[in-house]
Amino acid sequence: MALVKDSLLLYAVRGTLGDQITIYERNGQIIMAKKRTKSKKKPTKKQLEARDRMKVAAAYAKSILKDPELKAYYKSKAGPGQNAYNMAVKDAYNSPGVQNVQLKDDTVVVTARNEFRVAEVVVNVLDAAGNVKERGNAVVGRNGVDWYYKMAGMPVGGMVIKVVVVNLPGNETIKVVQLE
């Protein structure tokens, strides 16, 4: 790949030359590169999974471009050479993370992160036998990272807390914590 600067010859040229060189522009720079060819190797299982995830992410990105509010949000997250579509694909491709789940008195505190925005945190409180005792949405704290869920009562004999964190595209991350 070569970056071209101040070339009168390539100023207005874009496309493929003789099945060998491709010339294109990105971020105001002219780039010359060897023409890409299709691989002759059969794709691996991981590559096929990544392609499927990318198709889903691209479909999500196309749909958010129709929503002016979400489009503006993703555009605000874009850096140089990026746009709302790129950011939406990135958000849809990656799932949110649960860094920590802890119990403070009768409140479940969930530390959840996503590169863009965590849309929802659902807390399920189960007894030792696995029966759901209560379920509800956590409320985001002032720092934007910690989510709080106040339990109605503590199950007797230990409990399991199941946390479901969801980002804007709907990707879920589930974390289960056993408390004695």
How do the strands and helices of this protein lay out in sequence?
Blueprint: E1 2-4, E2 15-17, E3 21-26, E4 29-34, H1 45-64, H2 68-77, H3 84-93, E5 97-104, E6 107-113, E7 118-127, E8 132-137, E9 139-140, E10 146-150, E11 159-167, E12 172-179
Antiparallel strand pairs: 1-4, 2-3, 3-4, 5-6, 6-10, 7-8, 7-11, 9-10, 11-12
Helix pairs in contact: 1-3, 2-3
The profile of the biggest β sheet is:
4 strands, antiparallel
Number of helices: 3
- Which structural class is indicated by helix and strand composition? alpha+beta
Uncertain runs are: none
Q: Order of strands across the widest beta sheet?
A: 1-4-3-2
Percentage of β-strand residues: 35-45%
- Share of helical residues: 10-25%
Number of strands: 12
Mean pLDDT: 86
Please provide the ordered H/E string of secondary-structure elements.
Answer: EEEEHHHEEEEEEEE
Please provide a brief summary of the model.
This protein is α+β, with helices and mostly antiparallel strands and 180 residues long.
